[in-house]
Amino acid sequence: MNKERKHIVFLARWYPHRYDTMFGLFVQRHAEAAALFNDITVIYCQQTTDNGQQTSSTDDQPTELTYRTRPFEIVRTLENNVDTIRVYYKKPKNKILSLLRFYRANMIGLKLCKQIDLIHVHVLTRLGVIAWIQKLLHKTPYIITEHWSRYLPGNDFGGFLRKLATKIVVRNAKTVTVVTENLGNAMKSHGLRNDNYVVLPNVVNLDMFHINCRDVSHTSTKIIHISCFEDKSKNISGLLESLKIIDDKGIDFQCTLIGDGMDFDLMKAKAEELQLINKVSFTGLLEGQKLADELASGDFLVLSSNYENMPVVILEALASGLPVVSTNVGGIKEMIDETKGILVEPRDKEALAEAIMKMIETHQNYDAEFLRNSVIERYGYESVGRFLDKIYN
Q1: Angle at Cα 158 formed by Cα 155 and Cα 159, nearest 5°?
Q2: How many distinct structural domains can be found in the chain?
Q3: Is 322 in the same domain as 388?
């Protein structure tokens, strides 16, 4: 094995930042895994409506700041051995200027980097164009990791220029990694050709997510749901309607809904409308160990999404020893089989209700250690870090 550490620069379209510490958390975990075996710098650019005078970062670690208030602010931190450069820039008044500032912000980040061995793009298309230009100018190779579900049926991946640019950057990448085989096939269906499509596992913090010794004496089954509360994709309203069907049958349960987002208040109102207020609770956003502990206190996880790739929360539930009830969308079937949970077709509230009722009866039959081990083998930091190191080499 080549033990020489390479300098890999992540160009990340999604990444935690001062306004949203959960945004693109899975990309941050990839960076931390990669940093076990290589030197990683992350460049993330975020537009803002403030005047560039904020000095806060996403954590309490020492921060180096360079102010360019018209219109850039650079915040550089070392986070879990990852050199992290965030460039904030004031939101302009038109889309063309916004695009130019985005590119300039990324170039500012790249100029702060020393010798770059490879660029790792996370989420297309604009960052792919930057990487492609760097390859043309400096012969710097690049790879792509795509997380976006926009290529899947029913989503919007259109526009002649967008498709043309995406085809060019995908064709010129050394490797394209995707979080599920399903996503890779969807990209190929749009003519995004590359000889090296590889499935890159997401990362689970196995030190944080754990099996809890549950109280088997309680009578109510505790169901956990975690999402970003965007109903169009996550279909929380459909989940609530399924829970109403179960409640009307007199079956005892408690469902904890974790997360926050654009439809949070709407979903709380929906629960009240369905008279489920005594059956469901809304915690709001939970992070870190609080999230892990709440998840581990449950009996099983339920997801009701209309479309997905591979939700990290499924892996976190399995790492916590919880089986999963989910809609069969995206790449979820690549992870969940009958030994780990139940899959149902999307947009079928009766079928989802039936699956939840079956899991209420059978969740104790699942082997928690088996569920956790299925994640350890592939999704831990070291496993993913070694996988990335092999790609980089």
Answers
A1: 160
A2: 2
A3: no
